[in-house]
Amino acid sequence: MENPLETIALNGGWLCLDFINTVSARLPVMGEEYLRSWDDFRIWVKRAAVLPEEERRVWDRLPESNIEEVHALREALFALFQYAAQHGALHPEHLDTLNDLLHEVYPHTRICLTPDGLRRGVEKAPHPEKPLWLIALSAEDLLMGDRLQRIKACDNCGWLFLDTSKNGARRWCNMQTCGSQIKARAYYHRKKRL
Ligand SMILES: [Zn+2]
């Protein structure tokens, strides 16, 4: 059977939000866990193109690390960005896990001149946890970029996404799947009242 991570939707619009969306749903209750093992994480790292392909192949052959650390980072980021989606603000306690990881990551980073300007990159040497470092840097980038008001949770499934629509009124992670489900439900309730 195909692993759901091989074709999982990447609707978050930002690496760390797609990482948070690696459970089938957050609403109405926590859905199916997709990252059950380090091998699942390997599949997702490929799907989300976290590493350049050549580097990913090298990384793929490294010994596995602890999937519980992956879950801990994901749930810490979920708490942080879910709060932002609800309140348009941050809760200072939610920054602790991210700060701890960034403290680990920074010695491995370099500021590099790229065609798109200055970027913070992670040095090339492969390390099992490098995808987590890149996710942490992506979360830092999102937090520092003055986009908090644009972080939303899908009305239907609770997945998080960055709303880049012109009017900032996007309500669903995906119009085809979640948007149409909500609309069908609203129609059903309207009819019931007639
Ligand atoms: Zn959704």
Report the order of strands and helices: HHHHHEEHEEH
| Rounded Rg | 18 Å
CA-CA gap between termini: 45 Å
Q: What is the CATH topology descriptor?
A: Jann2411-like fold
Provide the residue-averaged pLDDT. 92
Q: Based on Cα principal axes, name the global outline.
A: globular
* Share of residues in helices: 40-55%
> What compounds sit in this structure?
zinc ion
Backbone structural class: mainly alpha
Q: Which strand order does the major sheet show?
A: 1-2
DSSP summary, beta strand count: 4
CATH classification, class level: Mainly Alpha
CATH superfamily: Jann2411-like domain
Secondary structure tally, helices: 7
Give the CATH architecture.
Orthogonal Bundle
Strand content: 5-15%
Characteristics:
194 residues; mainly alpha; Jann2411-like fold; two-stranded antiparallel ribbon; 7 helices; 4 strands; globular; binds zinc ion
Task: Explain this structure.
With 194 residues, the chain is mainly α. The protein has one domain (4-193): Jann2411-like domain (Jann2411-like fold). The protein is 46% helix and 9% strand. The chain has helices spanning 15-20, 38-47, 53-60, 67-87, 96-105, 130-144, 175-193; strands at 109-114, 117-122, 151-153, 160-162. Helix 5 crosses helix 6 (130-144). The longest helix has 21 residues, at 67-87. The radius of gyration is 18 Å and the shape is globular. 27% of the residues are buried. The mean pLDDT is 92.
